[in-house]
Amino acid sequence: MAEILVLVDHADGAVRKPALELLTLARRIGTPSAVVLGAGEAAASVAATAAEYGAATVYVADGAEFSERLVVPKVDALTQIAKEKEVAAVLVTSSGEGKEIAARVALRLGSGLLTDAVELEAGDEGPVATQSVFAASYQVKSRVSRGVPVITVKPNSAAPEAAPAAGTVEDVAVAFTGNAAKVVSRTARVSTGRPELTESAIVVSGGRGVGAAEGFGVVEKLADSLGAAVGASRAAVDAGWYPHANQVGQTGKQVSPQLYVAAGISGAIQHRAGMQTSKTIVAVNKDPEAPIFDLVDYGVVGDLFEVLPQLTEEIGAR
Amino acid sequence: MTLRIAVCVKYVPDATGDRGFADDLTVDRDEVDGLLSELDEYAVEQALRISEEADEAEVTVVTVGPDDAKDALRKALSMGADKAVHVNDESIHGSDVMGTSAILAKALEKTGFDLVVCGMASTDGTMGVLPALLAERLNLPQVTLLSEVSVEDGLVKGRRDGDAATELLEAPLPAVVSVTDQSGEARYPSFKGIMAAKKKPVEELELDDLEIDEDEVGLTGSWTLVESAAARPARTQGTIVTNEDGDGGKQLAAFLAAQKFI
Amino acid sequence: MGSKDFDLYRTAEEHEMLRESVRALAEAKIAPFAAAVDEEGRFPQEALDALVANDLHAVHVPESYGGAGADALATVIVIEEVARVCGSSSLIPAVNKLGSLPVILSGSEELKAKYLAPLAAGEAMFSYALSEPDAGSDAAGMKTRAVRDGDFWVLNGVKRWITNAGVSEYYTVMAVTDPEKRSKGISAFVVEKSDEGVSFGAPEKKLGIKGSPTREVYFDNVRIPADRMIGAEGTGFATAMKTLDHTRITIAAQALGIAQGALDYAKGYVKERKQFGKPIADFQGVQFMLADMAMKLEAARQLTYAAAAKSERVDGDLTFFGAAAKCFASDVAMEVTIDAVQLLGGYGYTRDYPVERMMRDAKITQIYEGTNQVQRIVMARNLP
């Protein structure tokens, strides 16, 4: 079967959830091979996880370049393996860096690039990706018409399913090329202990209606009772109430969780662009005219400072 | 020495309009007013700030797009850019990001630059890969997705706030930079700026001027194919309750329980 | 058929670019504070900061004095777009023009250089002090006196209804220099807030434009250098009237903006608000109201823009057009904002929605810079 190259994103020695989703999706269109770059001593455990989720082969490359230079070393590695192994497709997670890597790999391979797929299926002429565009108001199905398809897939596009495979580790010596920016320093983001926004199955977001930074307390409490990530609208972020890293919307993160709870968010187009593909949407807003209510499966017209704590309490009691 | 800064901008359909697709599955540009992509305003702003910090600098704004794209150029010029380059050719219609990046790279080479500044993504395509592709094509370092950027002593430095970590980056000029919407609020064109923009030069280029074969671009030169585009079925409004009786949270809990979320 | 290049009866491309720029600025930086500014009756500092940062606070100042050099129509568009989101804030560019225009029209080169540069730089605002407790429509009946004392003039008196009093650094003050000559015995001066003897009354408690301070200004033996006189002695009243020919158009602009803001809000509301199972916009009675509002507003806009062009050219019929634009646009603003409140029903009557504020703000445009009754007298005396 066709070999599908999957770039396996990892952090702190662990495989990140979107990579497991990629491996799961890859099985629909061929046989997944994992690519593990710059994992150092964690390479073996990362490879083992990849095997558990279906990687027949795991290509491992290491070197200081991966952490000291931006993007290009990973492009070098992925391109080299894709060429040597004559793979049928390359899959990368749709993150800022993932898309940059994928684009440059595609260009080097002379291949078409599809980004931000939310669904992937096998087609007669290669994999067909579903993308959601224009603030999720359109669904577009596209395929690559030239070269080896390079596709980036959004987190939460599939539920990871284990499917143990051989996971034969093959070490790769990468010939580094190119003109890359130097990474002078790297500071890991302080963990909040909550799930990653784009990866979480449940997201609870606060907006202008939260009123102040302190107001996010009730949002966080609800999120914690649900095991959810916390998001914020652009209005709340611009007001300085919550970090930009948590912004949901066109210029922030695009999330697609099983459940999205919008508290005090009116639902401007910029916000909807970031959450409209959520499976179930729930909103709490004082304003009955708020456009967010047009999208919801369930809406409560009321003060979020009354509704959220009561909900949190109910969840705690169950 | 004049620091030559080129800013790549895109003319996009207004995101607040009712955007859609034309019969050939390209973005319908007739139905909705266009404008300078909001995310590119941040690029223009950072280019202007860098130029204001430099002893001597010149900001050229570059776009690839139809006739109306000159509106985006005019806006950037009225913000303070010095001149503009407009690549406009019928064969470009339908180009994907590979084609567009090829055209832009040639236009940049022809224009000459020490620094290329881009927005983080366009507000219509939202791919966010053009800066990386330009870096690849021009064989220059990419210093991208920056929330802070500065140029000193022939080096471009910036801060990249990624998902997992914040990185401080640097690269020698020439380089390709992209900036996020966290990089600093874009200025509004002033009346003086608007009047001055009328007199600033806009160079019009066609594919022949860039020695690009028209088969390499447009729909025919595209390396991807849109098979279908369908309006997503509008979400239908579900149940709306009010918290008048003070039990909104309980009602919501009952709904979430029924849906097996709790 | 037809030609897209036909350039009559439309604004220039740069005017529309300016509108786009000011609208974006106003919506992002001024609108969010409009309700609070009204509610708290406080000066719209955020608006002043945003306007100064983008050189839109006094666009009429000529380039030779460090200004943007905007024509009268461009100035109208700036005021209109600010007023669309906040009537109080629109008095910043409007009153800066009103206060400084006497200097621009009649002042000496030295006076212009000294007072227009700080205005253009955003370091100082400029107010206009004509009215008095007993001299409103009959402005020539003023009592404020200026008496010559060597190289100085000494001012004594009270001015009332002075917009932006206390926040403005500079004031154009009309004062009687020769009581025998009535209107020809009035002269204009620039007085600075920091001049000794200048003080301010308590802010008036107003129906609308609550964010723009209106106060009395007191002159208690205010001794200023003689070169602060604007133009020649005895020309003050003529300068004051000439100024109003131009600036009544800025009040028309303010009225247009307030009305447009109300119409835009009502347009959005009627599409969302559902009664009897459909948006109220589907009812013909509502449609008729909106059509009338839009029709009147557009007629007022055309008249105002024509008047602005005449202001820029200083046409012979400017006096008529200025008065007509101010009178018509302000009457339209009152009607449109009242209808906007009506369209929102009970919601429109509450402070949770902006249209009642717009209605209150609109009222003043029928009153200041000459009541609409005075405008009709002016028009009648200057019929085209």
UniProtKB/TrEMBL annotation, chain A:
Binding sites annotated in the UniProt record for FAD: 208, 233-234, 247-251, 264-271, 285
Domain Electron transfer flavoprotein alpha/beta-subunit N-terminal, first and last residues per copy: 4-187
Cofactor note: Binds 1 FAD per dimer.
Gene Ontology biological-process annotations: fatty acid beta-oxidation using acyl-CoA dehydrogenase
Gene3D superfamilies to which the protein is assigned, alphabetical: HUPs, TPP-binding domain
GO-annotated molecular function: electron transfer activity; flavin adenine dinucleotide binding
Amino-acid biosynthesis in keyword set: no
Keyword Transport applies: yes
Taxonomy, superkingdom: Bacteria
Record Pfam families: ETF, ETF_alpha
Keywords from the named record: Electron transport, FAD, Flavoprotein, Transport
Listed cofactors: FAD
Subunit note: Heterodimer of an alpha and a beta subunit.
Family (UniProt): Belongs to the ETF alpha-subunit/FixB family.
Protein's job: The electron transfer flavoprotein serves as a specific electron acceptor for other dehydrogenases. It transfers the electrons to the main respiratory chain via ETF-ubiquinone oxidoreductase (ETF dehydrogenase).
Protein name per Swiss-Prot or TrEMBL: Electron transfer flavoprotein subunit alpha
Provenance organism: Streptomyces termitum
Automatic annotation (TrEMBL), chain B:
SUPFAM superfamilies: Adenine nucleotide alpha hydrolases-like
GO CC terms, sorted: cytosol
SMART domains documented for this protein: ETF
Secreted among keywords: no
Keywords recorded for this protein, A-Z: Electron transport, Transport
Entry keyword annotation includes Transport: yes
Gene Ontology MF term list: electron transfer activity
Alphabetized Gene3D superfamilies for the sequence: HUPs
InterPro entries xref list: ETF_a/b_N (IPR014730), ETF_b (IPR012255), ETF_beta_N (IPR033948), Rossmann-like_a/b/a_fold (IPR014729)
Cofactors, names only: FAD
Residue ranges annotated for the Electron transfer flavoprotein alpha/beta-subunit N-terminal domain, each copy included: 24-214
Subunit structure: Heterodimer of an alpha and a beta subunit.
Similarity section: Belongs to the ETF beta-subunit/FixA family.
Free-text function comment from the UniProt entry: The electron transfer flavoprotein serves as a specific electron acceptor for other dehydrogenases. It transfers the electrons to the main respiratory chain via ETF-ubiquinone oxidoreductase (ETF dehydrogenase).
Protein name: Electron transfer flavoprotein subunit beta
Organism, scientific name: Streptomyces termitum
Lineage, opening ranks: Bacteria, Bacillati, Actinomycetota, Actinomycetes, Kitasatosporales
UniProtKB/TrEMBL annotation, chain C:
Residue ranges annotated for the Acyl-CoA oxidase/dehydrogenase middle domain, each copy included: 128-222
Domain Acyl-CoA dehydrogenase/oxidase C-terminal: 234-383
Boundaries of every Acyl-CoA dehydrogenase/oxidase N-terminal domain copy: 13-123
Catalytic reactions of this protein: a 2,3-saturated acyl-CoA + A = a 2,3-dehydroacyl-CoA + AH2
Keyword annotations: FAD, Flavoprotein, Oxidoreductase
Domain of life: Bacteria
One MF annotation (Gene Ontology) recorded for this entry: flavin adenine dinucleotide binding
Essential cofactor(s): FAD
Any one Pfam family match given in the protein's UniProt record, by short name: Acyl-CoA_dh_M
PANTHER family given in the database record: ACYL-COA DEHYDROGENASE, ISOVALERYL-COA DEHYDROGENASE, MITOCHONDRIAL-RELATED
Family the UniProt entry places it in: Belongs to the acyl-CoA dehydrogenase family.
Name by which UniProt lists this protein: Probable acyl-CoA dehydrogenase fadE25
Organism, scientific name: Streptomyces termitum
